Amino acid sequence: MKKTYLGIDLGTTGTKSTLFDQFNNEIGRGYKGYELISPFDLAFEQNPSDWEDAVVASVKGAIGELDCSVLSLSVSAQGGSFFFADVDDNGKVIPLTNAFTWMDKRATLESEELNSKIEKDYFYYRTGSRLGAGSFPAKYLWLKKHNPEIIEKTKIILSTSDYIYYLMTGKFCIDYTSSYMMDVFNVKEKDYDSELLSLIGLDKNKLPSLLPAGAVIGEMLPEFAEKLGINKGVKVVCGAHDQYAANIGSNYFDNALLISSGTTWVVFGRSEELALTDSHFASCVHPIGNYGVFSSAVSSGVVIEWEKKLFSVDFEEMNREIPLRDFQEDLLVYPFISGSGGYRGEKSLSYSIDNAVFRYDKFDIIKATMEGVAFEIREIITRLKKSKIKQDKIIIAGGAVKSPAWMQILADVLGQEIYISNKPDRCCYGAYSIARKGVDGEFTTFEFDGKVAYPQKELVEKYNEKFIKYSKKFLDK
Question: Using alpha carbons only, what angle is made at residue 222 by residues 216 and 223, rounded to the nearest 5 degrees?
Fold first, then answer.
């Protein structure tokens, strides 16, 4: 009977589960999606029972008919999505609300009220995040204002992974990085922030206990193991927020930056120090050691999807046509179709095209947009290096790697080799690595088996000049 491990990624639109053997090989995969619920403008919710159903279905899909023994599992999860619950006399969790997802921005007024009570960046320098309409404290006050009876009944507030841990073990616990995404975790003290909890009137006992990633929570309850169709005695290991899990799952080299390319591109690095800076990078203790630091280029993936629809083209056409287009030194596209990341400050930025002329076609514009995204990644990396990030290599994973043209532009703009991962589910790999840590005492190191995009010297020089032109617009604002 094979000895195996499960890595589960509980994402925003669905849950993936991957089964691994003891030699880091994928031997099974499963997936189940779920819907967002939007009861009114700016409100985006999910049903917590959908998370459970997706975990069950995806694990069953990953195991299939294999004759195997699962030694341990861990969870990578979307951060900042949570729900309020009662707990009955038998210890059973009874949800009182749907989950408020991280995308939910209903609490604009409450975030403004909170920010008016504290000094600028007070919140950021305690939690590593800025207080906004999507933050847990603001939404807690929103519910307190609109449904105070729910607050009165609430005995526990659970986010994604900690709800799954409860179902599996009967215990309430959360890892540091996932707690960090709940915006009441003090990143310096590595504990809940008593002053912030007092500010919103929340009892610490209504939050899960804190554990480091890799800590064994306990053995899976026999009834839940039966529900999953797996053996008894599986160790449930405390996991991590998905960006940290993806970084652990891309542990090919020391001192490498990871770019996770999706709807939003996230640049993630590691530092020996907590990197709280004027660029408002997100920073928290890293499961492997020291600190994780990351920043989002918000519009990076979605802007290409938007242009694909606008110009009625597909990825295949883009990859075929864009390399045939000449370098255009003056055509600039600012890709902020859905806003910008915190590193650009509080300026209002939007999508725009500068210096367009009649001879350009849609592929020239798309190429310039890809360049604009690459320029934003360059800006983030430049700032990260000033924050004492150690970086020798750059790895990229996610949807954008399907575009060789875009990967070449990125290498030319950054003037550096880009290591392109050919395995998509790095979060599952990270969760698997954490599951191994709970059993073997060490995180797994993976061997790189992807492709490399090499910078072209003549284009590196041209892009250096174009980046200077691109950046002048921000100096004017």
Answer: 120
Residue labelled with tokens 């507030």:
157
pLDDT in tens, 322-362: 999 999 999 999 999 988 877 887 677 899 999 999 999 99
For CA atoms 300, 303, 309, 315, give the dihedral sign.
Answer: negative
CA distance 192 to 127: 9
How far is Cα 313 from Cα 283, in angstroms, rounded to an integer? 38
Task: Give the integer Cα–Cα distance in Å for 269 and 355.
Answer: 35
- Are the C-beta atoms of 71 and 151 separated by less than 8 Å? no
Spatial distance between the Cα atoms of 345 and 354, rounded to a whole number of angstroms: 22
Q: Enter the DSSP assignment of 193.
A: -
CA distance 477 to 466: 19
Q: Which residues of 393-418 are buried (b: 16+ CB within 10 A; e: fewer)?
A: bbbbbbbbbebebbbbbbbbbbbbeb
Task: Give 29's strand partners.
Answer: 18
Q: What is the pTM of this model?
A: 0.92
Structure tokens at 120: 């600028």
Distance from C-alpha of 32 to C-alpha of 57, rounded to nearest angstrom: 6
The rounded average pLDDT for each run of 10 residues, N- to C-terminus, in the chain (477 residues) is: 94 95 95 95 96 98 94 96 96 97 94 90 90 94 97 98 98 97 94 95 97 97 96 97 94 90 90 85 90 91 94 94 96 92 80 95 97 97 83 91 96 97 89 96 91 97 97 78
Q: What is the pLDDT of residues 247-295, one digit of tens each?
A: 999 989 888 999 999 888 999 999 888 888 888 888 899 999 889 999 9
Q: Can you give the three-state secondary structure of 162-188, one letter per residue? A: HHHHHHHHCCCEEEHHHHHCCCCEECC
**Which domains, and CATH codes, for the chain?**
2-244 (3.30.420.40), 282-286+294-420+452-476 (3.30.420.40)
Q: Number of helices (H) and strands (E), helices first, in the chain?
A: 16, 24
